[in-house]
Amino acid sequence: MYKKILLPTDGSTYADQEVERVENLISEDGEVIVLSVAGRLTSSAFQPRRKVKKVNEKLKKDAHRFVENMAAKFDESLNVKKMVVTGFPAETINQVAEDEGVDLIVISASGKSGIHRFVIGSVAEKVLKNSNVDVLLVHNDEGES
Questions:
Q1: Which residues pair with 141 in a beta bridge?
Q2: pTM metric for this prediction
Q3: How confident is the model over 93-133, as pLDDT tens digits?
Q4: How far is Cα 39 from Cα 88, in angstroms, rounded to an integer?
């Protein structure tokens, strides 16, 4: 059993599978951290500041919605902490894992079907390669019969 598990979410449809794994692995007095990383655009000559600000606000709003939706799937008896952080997904996930002292990161592999089933999503792959803690890649059942 793990004492502290980090569960990053990007709002994908695999939340139920990830939640099930976490609930089976978390200790009775453990903590689940549901994290969404909001990207951040910067203004340039081609992107007016006003437009970039609006996009960044939407990215952050979406990230909060992803976290709320994921956290709501857990049994109420579990200690669930919700976090939204701005940054690059893989790097931010690993940094939060280190800062929070988690024991395990549970992340969805994004392979869909055929050849793509054998390819780990780029964020999951970067988290796996650079993490200092255990990482559980959750297989997605999409496209299987």
A1: none
A2: 0.86
A3: 999 999 999 999 999 886 444 444 445 568 888 999 999 99
A4: 6
pLDDT recorded at residue 32: 98
7 part of a folded domain: yes
The confidence band for 9, taking pLDDT boundaries of 50, 70 and 90, is very high
**Nearest alpha-carbon partner for 125 in 89, 85, 83, 82:** 89
Q: What percent of the chain has pLDDT over 90?
A: 64
The Cα diameter of the chain in Å comes to 53
Cα–Cα distances in angstroms (integers) from residue 21 to residues 1, 14, 48, 88, in the given order: 11, 11, 43, 25
Place of tokens 């939640």: 19
Classify residue 145: in a domain, yes or no: no
Instruction: Return d(Cα 4, Cα 24) in angstroms, integer.
Output: 13
Query: What is the chain's Cα-based Rg?
Result: 16
Number of domains into which the chain is organized: 1
Angle of CA points 41, 88, 61, to nearest 5°: 60
Range of the domain at 25: 2-138
Considering the domain boundaries, does residue 144 fall inside one? no
Whether residue 143 is contained in a domain is answered as no
Report the CATH number at residue 96.
3.40.50.620
